[in-house]
């Protein structure tokens, strides 16, 4: 009997999950007979099973619902909103009772008269009944109870057959190996038999892995109901679209992403999507759009949740961070837009104006992110203020087999998930420098400054006085998207795929370990948790040098300061280029380079791209190329070698003529030429050639300032600067004219758009067309606006 | 089955374990330490393809971590879906005890009173009945 009840519970739960979306569709269109049939079938099945299993409470509920649904089916009653609600309430109650039954407790003793009455109360609005008893358990205990329940899984019969066959094959192969061993036939016969056994085992492992896989549909199917309920509570209209529900994921993983996903959806509906009235005002359709898409990409699953709501207001976020004292004003000022957006992950921060039942209950995006990162995943945001937010979750396919690095520290071996490791260096490497600053160790790896800790210190082990390796190894670890550190270990031993199992709660409680594994040598090994190690080292509590650097990089597009890459040209001289423009450095096979259409071109990623800085094919087998990007256009720049990363001085002496060299910077005693990245991109095909550019006439004295400071700026804004003296005859059309200085030139005599640059700040506000000569933003803004008008 | 108890020795004293909680008794050849874990965790050991956590029962009583002697017996229990080995000095016997358990005397020293659940009478000897749940997660009971 118990078995039957267990089966009833499992089956009912499963149908309930699948039915959730049907219910919502039925509500939208109560005349949809197909959905009605599906729901009817469900209550009918429940009724049938309950009668047999002697569960009177279920029977009463399902019987009442069935009656009503039958009437609707026959057209004797209308599927009014109240009726739909009442049916939904009955199905919810069945779900709640199933949860109670699962925990093996007796059902709470009560009737469901309120619900049954609601079914038959057709016209009367649903009154809050004072006697309504709440069967629903508080959610935390509910969760705890669910965990205690024996978990079951349904597997297709085909797969079980496959497993059974596999086991038979394995037994046969084992027998053959045994026979070989008994007859002492070593050599090839044994080898073949062993090979067969190995193949069988590998096949079985895959098949068992498949039994753990589940369609992501399992978390998608309850979503329509969730969205419906949220919308009803918040008075919003949302159209939910899901795709990729057939993507398969480890069932363990499905459980792990359920809560973060629900939280993101709650946020999207509560904070993202506006009310219908607000949407109408900003010209969006009243019904918001929320789409959830899953797809597999390599050994990762990508889940994208995008809405067309208001996006994240980073200004507000910063204000909140300041108000909640999560960041202080000096920290906030230098933040890039991206870093500001990242504030949403700071603990204790909420953008909700008031705490509602839906969100803002203290469980924030920080928890979502740490949950996702704990399972080796990552979370990214694409924010379009006013137009929507896209959240991208990346999670590994499976938790059980993880590519790991095995390391030794304090005479013991540990495993570390490879996904968190960025690079491995010896401490003897010239690119590595360890330094003590104010009592804490910092490692400089290729100019990047990271907190530095020894694994032995973190784990409280003694450093082996006689290590087997002469040099210690430094692993640069990416524990979380904004938390990086350098971990020093005695040695890196190997890279292998390990089957990881969770450890005992007493071991996992520390947070240092993510699980245990048994490698080939039969000695248990602990899997380190990179994030837990960082917490132990109190890295997230002290100011993060790594992040500070990142923020500076983010701010480096400013003309002065920032980091620059020092490199050697093929011709031999040293030059600098803004680091922000360099995407990566790559060694390419010189055979992929060819002279074509008067340019040296590289075949890359299935297309041909021009390479700057090469006049002929190099003789060396490999050519070092800088991949430059402005975020949209890519360019390749051939160099001899990359030397270092340096800080640019705040002042770069501009070059007299616009060209490849934008200026000269003083680094130490060296005068180095700085490439003008902007010029490089402007010379690329695709950018308007100089002749086609609109003319900008610079009217003023032909002095150094006009020629070497103003002209490059105008050229950079996409114009062809032409210098004219005030007395010169004004000929030809100019899209825009700039009158330099307070010259007595009447704007009317010039024609077209006129900007007047004033020498002093005081006279700048004389009229709208007058701009102070160093009001760079104002001038560029005008120029770019003019450019857009031209192309429009 | 319910009345069967495993008689073992912890810190030189004879104690009883409820047998319905016990999977098996194994000999532990070697264990791997878990750095910076709670002091009562002796380490990890492999049992066929599984990794088990070895609990040092003596630590609860004496406060001194025990050195693992290769071949020392451990009682394997499964608690909350995880398997543990409870490291004891020796395992003596499995006996049926049908007398009603007695409450713990109040003057019992702290270590014993924490891991003990009740007293059992067996052949004119009084044995302490050990609570394996406490040993695998002492924090849990203190919090409760």
UniProtKB/TrEMBL annotation, chain B:
GO biological process, one term: signal transduction
Domain called CheW-like: residue spans: 1-141
GO cellular component terms given for this protein: cytosol
Domain of life according to the entry: Bacteria
SUPFAM superfamilies in UniProt: CheW-like
Family annotation (PANTHER family): CHEMOTAXIS PROTEIN CHEW, CHEMOTAXIS SENSOR HISTIDINE KINASE-RELATED
Protein's UniProt name: Chemotaxis protein CheW
